[in-house]
Amino acid sequence: MTDMKGFFYPRTASGRSSLIPSPPWYYSGDLLTVEYRTDPTRVADLLPAPLGLVQDDPGAVALIWADWQSCSASREELLDPVRSQYKEAFVVVRCSLEGRTYSRCVFIWVDKDFAIGRGVHQGYPKKLGSMWQTRPHPFPQGAPQIGPGGVFGATLAAGDRRLAEAVLTLREESADNGFVNAHPMAHHRVLPGIARGAPDAFAELIESGATQFEAGPAWTGEVELRLFESPTEELALLRVHEIIGGYYRQVGVVWDGGRSLAVLTDGSASEDA
Amino acid sequence: MTDMKGFFYPRTASGRSSLIPSPPWYYSGDLLTVEYRTDPTRVADLLPAPLGLVQDDPGAVALIWADWQSCSASREELLDPVRSQYKEAFVVVRCSLEGRTYSRCVFIWVDKDFAIGRGVHQGYPKKLGSMWQTRPHPFPQGAPQIGPGGVFGATLAAGDRRLAEAVLTLREESADNGFVNAHPMAHHRVLPGIARGAPDAFAELIESGATQFEAGPAWTGEVELRLFESPTEELALLRVHEIIGGYYRQVGVVWDGGRSLAVLTDGSASEDA
Amino acid sequence: MTDMKGFFYPRTASGRSSLIPSPPWYYSGDLLTVEYRTDPTRVADLLPAPLGLVQDDPGAVALIWADWQSCSASREELLDPVRSQYKEAFVVVRCSLEGRTYSRCVFIWVDKDFAIGRGVHQGYPKKLGSMWQTRPHPFPQGAPQIGPGGVFGATLAAGDRRLAEAVLTLREESADNGFVNAHPMAHHRVLPGIARGAPDAFAELIESGATQFEAGPAWTGEVELRLFESPTEELALLRVHEIIGGYYRQVGVVWDGGRSLAVLTDGSASEDA
Amino acid sequence: MTDMKGFFYPRTASGRSSLIPSPPWYYSGDLLTVEYRTDPTRVADLLPAPLGLVQDDPGAVALIWADWQSCSASREELLDPVRSQYKEAFVVVRCSLEGRTYSRCVFIWVDKDFAIGRGVHQGYPKKLGSMWQTRPHPFPQGAPQIGPGGVFGATLAAGDRRLAEAVLTLREESADNGFVNAHPMAHHRVLPGIARGAPDAFAELIESGATQFEAGPAWTGEVELRLFESPTEELALLRVHEIIGGYYRQVGVVWDGGRSLAVLTDGSASEDA
To answer: Considering the entire predicted model, what is its pTM?
Structure first.
């Protein structure tokens, strides 16, 4: 019998078909971040035990657009860029676990299957969406530049409905790129039991973050954000009570695994709707 | 702390955001099937232990296109059909486990995220692709009809490369719709360990099949099949040595879970490439 | 010098690259039609002179979804169905010209480039959109059937915004499939002048319709329709004052050209915004 | 009767629905150019009279990928970037007309409808395609940089088939960005007659070019190019006999109309296939 190779499915004798390569994974991209306050009860609605609200500013939310190019250690995906470019928008909140503060991605949309596969591995709950964000360019005819007065738009749609749109006008450099997505991520990885009505077959709480992180200056300025209803999404429940800030930053990241915090074997972390 | 609801990610207080609803799942669709023989060694390359080749016709392969409309018990997805229609193409082989014969999907491409999510649950190794198959219609101006002389084309592409194309010309009704995809499915569900280089965190061998299955007559006839190379796919390694047959059939299916055959806790089912 | 061939661009020595083949064009498909009344002034806003409102029910509008498979006389597109299947949604009003009543498509969205090319030829003002309509199927697990109680949804989106959605519940057969899209089409074909600020280089009023038309029974029933705003569309200005009816019908059509009613050489038919 | 507004279709009382705004149009983007020599007879196959081959290097071809962000004078599209970003790949040759040398786009693929609409106006024979080109980024984790050793890939697909792929490795700055796409464009704008078998209703030869053009340094280096067959395309007929060079350059462009060289009223410029 053949030994199977490949980091992810489909596993084969060669491993060549795997939807995603083995980490480390390398990323270069631009982040447009909007931070705002919502009702902390709505954040608590997204935190399964044993995760809890943080004490300081518990209703803070970050909605982040990212325009990425990414690759494996071989860098071969960069030469066939349908395999390396993708866009995403994701919602991050903070949570508390045994006295530590974590960031947690509660909703995320991407536009490539390899990004979905990475999400299954990393515990990002990825769906397909259509994301667009204005790109800076050295020539201003059809583009803003990263600097005072630069105006950047960003939109998110899924299921043929617009879910969010933002406009950020840069004013000045900022000491940080916001504070909500600034902690290690605490994510669940869950597989429902295969038998009808069974508890989860596997549920794990993991922690991960970037192995390497480089970034240009963060820019901040005025930002507007609108969220829209959808029958299949709950983003609009995180109603915007107060804008905290908007940020634009170019970054380079390496991700190379995380660590398991707990394997929840009794299925108690979930209760089917 | 809130109890989380939702069959799949993202789990929330309401469960409304789940990428996929709880089973049962309901399907109506058209299947275009091409069965052929390849080198059995190439089939063995896709069967992890303890699965083995079947003794009778071990190199038989089915490449199946399906044009689906599907929904949950609520049927609400049918009224917002971006959430219910999808297309797929998938490759099935047979394997032997403890004296029983199973079918096994070794490669599959779909065009919607909810279909990917179902695949993670059911052990189908789904990627995104672009699939097209000729549709029958009561009026012949721009369509064949399911009957003698009806000609149906089917194509599969992924990563902006064409991977397969088939043309089936119907001749007569057939006693069956082929034999390769006729057994319960034996699939693996695997989550790699989150730590760099770690063994799989979870690996399970499951069995599943339709709870309910209705079908119209199967039609057969002449069929041509061409497979094409891609750096990220291994479909073309399953070279066509001999065509067995081509089939067209309309079906209605209900899927409502499966059963776990084995949970492989030591990670031995895989070896990273 | 080479003679160029090809019905449409790009023209080459062989004609093989033409975005669209020479007519006749053959279609099989399903139509979901919603007819309603809006303010006739809004219809008049879409009728350039010499077209005028009809006297009888001048505010009647048809919003039609169509799920097509189409081909040229060679039928080769049917075997490579990415080249033959497309979906569309379009808005039709009636107008009067020299005492005759015409139908006129005022807005239309499609999802393939060959459909856009046909529109440039036929005077349909086609944009890209994302259209979905529930499909009937012989097996009811995931599909309605064309008959009493069959429920069909339809949606339209463009620019990552939903523009319209309808739900039609069939009750009984109908003597007709509505009356708004029942006349020959009167369309303009216009090319703006290439010089900045120049009048139109070409403007022609044409008439066309199906050369051959076959259809199954029209079904009617209860219908709901919702229209949504978009900064780049004016569909929602045709506000729904009163629903006239909803219809479902399967059809086969051949289109083989039309006739020129007038060539407007002075550019007076348009005035740039 | 209402006066109609809007630069392009659909024209309405407000002009808001027009697929494209009035020029001028503003662009910022990155160009990856591959120049090579093919058999001049194949170039002649694409030049309708009175255009002829140039004497100097008549078989020179440029295949250009462009990653654009574009907008109208209002710049509003930049804030809803689904309306401003698009990618394209296009093939340019040179031709001679009355002693002058022109560039001419003979094949082009884009991924947005507004780009198709602009093409109808400007005489670019645009189809839909899927184009990807590696993006430079300040952080190297997942991106090359524009400088020595920077490696850029580019691919083109249409109809679910890959048509071309290139890899460019930068070595040094270049005095130019190639010579094939360096002249004013000579394009045809053609509308076939609406009656079956009729000659063209309108055929015009126009000249246009950028009103404003800014550019960074052009970089050159080693380049590989592969072209692939398709039943609906003739790109691969322009076989690569010899690579001339590869170039990368960032540019800003304004386009604001052109001028008519000839209106061909007798339809003699084309002969249907």
So the answer is: 0.97
